[in-house]
Design brief:
Blueprint lengths: L3 E8 L8 E8 L6 H10 L27 E4 L2 E4 L12 E4 L6 E3 L2 E2 L2 H9 L20 H11 L6 H5 L12 H12 L7 H8 L13 H5 L6 H22 L1
Parallel strand pairs: 1-5
Antiparallel strand pairs: 1-2, 3-4, 3-5, 6-7
Helix pairs in contact: 3-5, 5-6, 5-8, 6-8
The chain binds iron/sulfur cluster (2 copies) and FE2/S2 (inorganic) cluster.
One iron/sulfur cluster (SF4) binds next to helix 7 and helix 8.
Length: 248
């Protein structure tokens, strides 16, 4: 391993500004990850030609692949930068912002669309009320296990980044929100809002936008079986559509 790491960063000075590339040489440290590289550049913002520049902006929080905030495109693959070890990456290391969200600055993107989709599908269990709702019904262990997989979603956005159907031309809620719809519809306490969620998934930007390309399931760092939730909710929305037709 050479004593420096070569890094190419796709930079952008602000929303709507022209992107440009900048090259850096960063001193190698054993066990370093992409966040360490960005911290080194922040400490000494000098490009590979020795010119002083501005520090590269990026997002992070947990540093242990739990919050999803540090997600970016590394050597062409969308993933978390805190768990991207330099020793396991080809050099030069190419860093780009996520491709489906608007860039705020450099590697920082605005993931509001994904969080708005979570609100659209009511990705929560309503617990507020004017009286005590009492304990929720117990879940059988098998169901707990199935739902646990979906509960590990960290809203990193890798799945929407990889989804060919998630574009700026449509309002597709995307695979993460579909996965969370499944989680809360199958949860006994979340069932109260099941119909609302299914009706939302039948609106513009709903589940019918999914082309079943299965890219989402391949890139999810938590191995969430997103396509299983898509198949199940396709059936559930069909049943809901029939119910709406005959019972309303
Ligand atoms: S299955 Fe394909 S089209 Fe559907 S949400 Fe996943 S990546 Fe997108
Ligand atoms: S489903 Fe997976 S890829 Fe998508 S936001 Fe959640 S953790 Fe990230
Ligand atoms: S900083 Fe939280 S996932 Fe990387």
């Amino acid at each position: 391993m050479s004593s420096t790491v070569e890094v190419h960063v796709k930079r952008q000075d602000g929303a709507g500004k022209e992107p440009y590339w900048q090259k850096f040489h960063v001193p190698y440290q054993y066990g370093m990850n992409v966040i360490t590289i960005l911290q080194e550049i922040q400490r000494n913002p000098t490009d590979a030609d020795g010119r002083k520049t501005t520090p590269v902006s990026w997002d992070c929080s947990c540093l242990e692949e739990v919050c999803g905030a540090c997600t970016m495109v590394i050597n062409g693959h969308v993933r978390q930068s805190c768990s991207a070890l330099v020793d396991k990456l080809e050099q030069p290391i190419i860093l780009e912002p996520m491709r489906k969200f608007p860039v705020v600055r450099d590697l920082v993107v605005d993931r509001a669309r994904m969080f708005e989709a979570m609100k659209r599908v009511k990705a929560w269990v309503t617990v507020d009320g004017t009286y005590n709702l009492g304990p929720a019904e117990k879940q059988p262990p098998k169901q707990q296990q199935e739902l646990y997989e979906f509960s590990r979603c960290m809203t990193c956005g890798c799945c929407v980044d990889a989804c060919p159907q998630y574009t700026s031309e449509n309002t597709f809620v995307g695979p993460a929100a579909i996965g969370q719809t499944f989680l809360f519809n199958r949860n006994k306490a979340g069932k109260f809002e099941e119909e609302d969620r299914l009706n939302t998934l039948m609106e513009e930007g709903g589940i019918h936008e999914c082309g079943n390309a299965q890219n989402c399931v391949r890139v999810c760092p938590k191995d969430i079986p997103l396509t299983r939730s898509i198949a199940a909710l396709n059936k559930d929305t069909l049943k809901q559509a029939l119910k709406n037709m005959f019972l309303k």
